[in-house]
Design goal:
The chain is an alpha+beta fold. About 50% of the residues lie in helices and about 15% in strands.
Length: about 160
């Protein structure tokens, strides 16, 4: 079995899209292995987005804090027999900018924001879901969002 990490963001929960998003994954041959609900803290968010903060700059920290802090997210470990699960999940999720995401993807069909609008409004793009981009990110991200007793199964 092969694994990846996704996280449903606050806008997905606020719009009650959890089951619909999980449906896209299941239709794509991706199964849920472990699911959690967590209230986001600054520490977790800043750790999760450390690379983005380093790349984009400190102003992203405040945007991320406003978007996530105190709100619920749904971290999920997904699995498949496909060794290319990470790229497959990212195909199902769609492009980061919902207006550029292909129809038939989670962001392309369900997204209601755009990167440009979020930049104009000085906030994070509400793009519903995060998906790990490599095996190292998977290992790092599950340690941020799950207890050690869970992560030990995957490391």
């Amino acid at each position: 079995m092969y694994y990846s990490f996704i996280m449903l963001k606050p806008d997905a929960l606020e719009r009650d899209l959890t089951q619909q998003i999980i449906g896209y994954l299941k239709e794509g041959g991706i199964e849920i292995d472990w699911i959690n609900t967590v209230r986001a803290t600054r520490d977790r968010i800043f750790t999760h987005y450390a690379d983005v903060i380093a790349k984009v700059g400190e102003e992203f920290k405040e945007k991320a804090a406003r978007y996530f802090e105190g709100k619920y997210v749904v971290p999920i470990i997904v699995k498949s027999e496909d060794e290319n699960i990470i790229s497959r999940v990212r195909e199902i999720v769609g492009a980061t900018d919902p207006v550029k995401a292909a129809k038939g993807t989670i962001r392309g069909d369900l997204g209601s924001d755009s990167l440009q609008r979020s930049l104009d409004e000085n906030r994070c793009c509400e793009n519903l879901i995060h998906a790990s981009d490599c095996p190292e990110a998977f290992r790092t991200e599950i340690q941020i969002w799950f207890d050690p007793s869970v992560t030990a199964r995957y490391l």
